[in-house]
């Protein structure tokens, strides 16, 4: 048998670290990579340090109307008072600017309800304001908002998740908003609850008050410039003290056509097609809107004069039919 062992290779010894084929990156290349990484990190940190923080305002219009109407006009019925939404929004923006001086405004989200989510003329005007986005929930037969809370939660959570805002101003009072607050806080945003003084008791849910990071309420003096009773300046026809003669049927028909033009511009031809088959009858909400808008233009009440109300509807229908 051949007992000879296979020849052994000589020990190569420790690797030469300076050799380019040693199987490891050259030490000089490693140092250069580290320096480049540090330079990139310094640039990122410098950019973050100079980027201003951002805040947004989330306003539940239903709460603003109800709370401000009750405080200033003594009623929550929107039909009986006018609210200067543009003035209110500007006041909220100014207040936020004072509270967050080192932060920039992303935008104001104005949440309201509308039938079939079609903007009213007033909501269209608000949507045209700079830095304002109108978001619409639905409005049921009892004029109650539906879906607004879920819209607030979706926007608030999304902006917080993407680090688009650091502070969120929430103007509302519904307990259903607690989940929106929790979601935003889970992503690191601070949520500040703003409200309007209640005539008695509270108009914001206690669980909501417990959950937010800070609270602030606005008093009567703050709200008074932005709320006006619609009945101020109206003269009821046929009653003592009425100023001037009642307008004629032609004048009222013309006002009806004016309101119809505004209605059509706000809702579009699809809504007109739905309305026409019911002529000469108007759905209750449309009829009420027509009456309130006409009284605002005339600065007089039509409640006691059925003949003028008929002329008003005639003018409304005549304009719509001419556009179909």
From TrEMBL:
Ranges of residues in domain NYN: 56-200
**Which branch of life, at top level?**
Bacteria
Q: What is this protein called?
A: NYN domain-containing protein
Under the heading Gene3D superfamilies, the entry gives:
5'-nuclease (3.40.50.1010)
Cross-referenced Pfam families, in alphabetical order? NYN
Region of interest (Disordered), ranges? 1-22
Q: Which organism is it from?
A: Streptomyces pactum
